[in-house]
Amino acid sequence: MATIYVITGPPHIGKSTCGQYFIPEGIKILDPNLFVQSYAALGLKDGYRRFEEQLLMLLSNDEDFAVEVNMVNKTHLQMLHDIKALYPENKIEMIFFYTDNMYICHARSKAKKNSGCDSSTDKITHLYIHTMPLVKRHLNLFSSVKGVDISENHMVPETVFKYQDNISGIEVSTYLPIWAQ
Predict the structure, then answer these.
(1) Where does the source fall among the domains of life (predicted)?
(2) How many domains does the chain have?
């Protein structure tokens, strides 16, 4: 039995920057968007297929790994459903990055635009608004959820709650932000 850590949340929330700090050390993180971008930069169009090959190799070897996903992306969401259906013995743990302040995502996007990132404010707003309902709707995919609050007042994200499907109730670290209530 392997553990798959799913790092998710709205765009520009800090998943790629801080996700590694919320999973066990040494766990490989796969990012399908990074595969696609890297292969596209080389003029190749099979980046997602290469991501899927890596994913299947890790699953068939029964290895623990992490994957960064966007729940609003239908392909990413279907991938999680497929993993759950084909490998039901594995634990799938969600690390959910979120904030009550969508403008943090907008500010980070603007900062990244200087480094070539292309995300419109409307697209970020759309993804932000739709992430929470999709996470709630698909909680049955996950054996546990760790909520990570991104706050404009803190430089380091903090875990604000933990939930496991075999334990009744939610373990709250400090307080529940609006999005977690």
Answers:
(1) Bacteria
(2) 1
- Cα 68–76–103 angle (5° rounding)? 60
SS3 content of the chain, % helix, strand, coil (to 5): 45, 20, 35
Q: Is 50 exposed, middle or buried (0-12, 13-18, 19+ CB in 10 A)?
A: middle
Structural domain harbouring 8: 3-180
pTM, 2 dp: 0.85
User: How would you write 39-89 as a 3-class SS string?
Assistant: HHHCCCCCHHHHHHHHHHHHHHCCCCEEEEECCCCHHHHHHHHHHHHHCCC
H or E element: which one contains 140? none
80, 138 contact by CB (below 8 A): yes
Structure tokens at 28: 């490989």
Q: What is the pLDDT of residues 21-35, one digit of tens each?
A: 899 999 999 999 888
CATH number of the domain where residue 10 is located: 3.40.50.300
Q: Using one digit for the tens of pLDDT, what is the confidence trace for 131-178?
A: 888 888 898 899 988 888 887 655 567 777 677 776 655 666 666 666
